[in-house]
Amino acid sequence: MSTSSKKVLLLGAGFVVKPTLTLLSEKGVEVTVACRTLESAQKLCKDVKNAKAISLNVEDEKALDAEVDKVDVAISLIPYTFHPLVIKSAIRKKKNVVTTSYTSPAMVELEKDIQEAGITVMNEIGLDPGIDHLYAVKTIDEVHKAGGKIKSFLSYCGGLPAPEASANPLGYKFSWSARGMLLALGNTARFYKDGKTEEVPGHDLMSVAKPYTTGYTGFAFVAYPNRDSTPFREKYQIPEASTIIRGTLRYTGFPELIRCIVDIGFLSQDPQDFLKPSSSAPITWKDATAKILNATSSSEQDLTWAISSKHTFSNTDEKIRILAGLRWLGLLSSDPIIPRSTPLDTLCATLEKKMAYEEGERDLVFLQHRFEIEHKDGKHETRTSTLCEYGAPGGYSAMARLVGIPCGVAVMQVLEGKLAKGLLAPYTPEICDPLRKELLQGYGIDMVERTVA
Q1: pLDDT tens digit string along 310-322?
Q2: Rounded CA gap, 325 and 312, in Å?
Q3: Residues 52, 68 contacting (CB under 8 angstroms)
Q4: Cβ(373)–Cβ(136) under 8 Å?
């Protein structure tokens, strides 16, 4: 089926938009890029054929309906809380939707209306979620068809600076909101381990981070569980699995420094008068830190005492390293704060300034599944499935490519009528296999499988 006459509405201005836009443009699809600010949309469309820019507020129901009505598919790459507005418009206009976000309860509430409208709403088709599903389903299906069982499933993903760009105390850089990353550290984690349901409150999350061996010995990763892994026993159809953990990878040293930052109160979202923007000059970081800590003074000695009273260091070397990290971040310095009302947001403003990617620096995406398999004959196997990709300086970041390309491939499948109607996500071989094959053959995106034990 020709797609040259097909049209899509691409909502969003984030860094993953460009790979999706370019893929569709090269396939001859007409793309309307819609952002709140016209300038952002125009910047994305520059030098891209078959693309035009508009200004659109998705909370304006009438305006959204008018644009959705003109296209075959609406791609929602805006914050997930707005997806239901887009889906409701698509239901009214009987159009299809693709997102890279998890299927939310608000989307599930619309499932009946989606079915009655006869449209496709495809979610969870980026990197994580997305590529992770495609290769989890592949191995699980192969093992089950051969009469085997998945006894344990671990899946960890990290979006990180490449090792040569990781020279800061957190080993991390921001290509998106620092607030989003820090708030994610406050989410309670639930998972299955050795047949039992375990739960870790957000404030304890960094204390359960452990070194994680991937088999790629050039990397020094730590791993910790992320959000609720328990639904994946049903989603992946592995009722036999006694351990199911999905989580996050970071470089060594990250958890200890984050745990200290949490303990001394810098993730608080409570507004403080001394952190509010005003006409007067902002206070220094050391004065702000003293107030947040209730320290005796803002001298480094008193700040160090106050930090030590709120956070327990495991040894002297760790204390030296973490205090050096806080100094690097500027929290003990005479530098002025960038006031944002709360400790969390004021810290974020500084992190985004000090820990942004510099010109020519690469990012790294590392995603790995680890399967403990019991074969039909009783033999056991440990198998890994690994994706390791670097960004291209001057081109796409690894994260942008690995989110944006799968999204674009899914949009093409919707346009070509290859996906069923209804509320979908890639959890079955019927959906996953064609997507996985196209990503490999068309774009060289795959996960490398190895038997390691």
Answers
A1: 999 999 999 999 9
A2: 16
A3: no
A4: no
178-226: pLDDT as tens digits: 888 888 888 999 999 999 999 999 989 999 999 999 999 999 999 999 9
Quickly count: other Cβ atoms within 10 Å of residue 76's Cβ.
26
What lies within 8 Å, CB to CB, of 378 at 6+ separation is none
- Tell me how far the alpha carbon of residue 196 is from its chain's centroid: 27
Q: What are phi and psi of 35, to 5 degrees?
A: -135, 165
- Do the beta carbons of residue 86 and residue 76 sit within 8 Å? yes
110-142 tens-digit pLDDT: 999 999 999 999 999 999 999 999 999 999 999
Q: If 0-12 CB within 10 Å is exposed, 13-18 middle and 19+ buried, where does residue 307 land?
A: buried
Instruction: Give SS3 for 94.
Output: coil
Point out which residues pair with 32 in neighbouring strands. 9, 52
- Of 75, 72, 54, whose CA–CA distance to 63 is shortest? 54
Would the pTM count as exceeding 0.70?
A: yes
Catalytic residue flag (residue 345): no
Spatial distance between the Cα atoms of 236 and 29, rounded to a whole number of angstroms: 33
C-alpha dist (Å) from residue 142 to 124, 145, 178, 239, 350: 22, 5, 39, 16, 48
Q: What are phi and psi of 381, to 5 degrees?
A: -140, 140
Structure-token pair, residue 9: 């509405």
Residues 66 and 34: their CA atoms lie apart, in Å, by 12
**Amino acid making up residue 81:** T
Which residue out of 69, 128, 273, 287 is catalytically annotated? Answer: 128
Q: H or E segment at 235? A: helix 232-235
For every residue of 352-380, DSSP letters joined together read HHHSBPPTTPPEEEEEEEEEEEE-TTS-E
In DSSP notation, 143-186 reads HHHTT-EEEEEEEEEEEEE-GGG--STTS--BSS-HHHHHHHTT
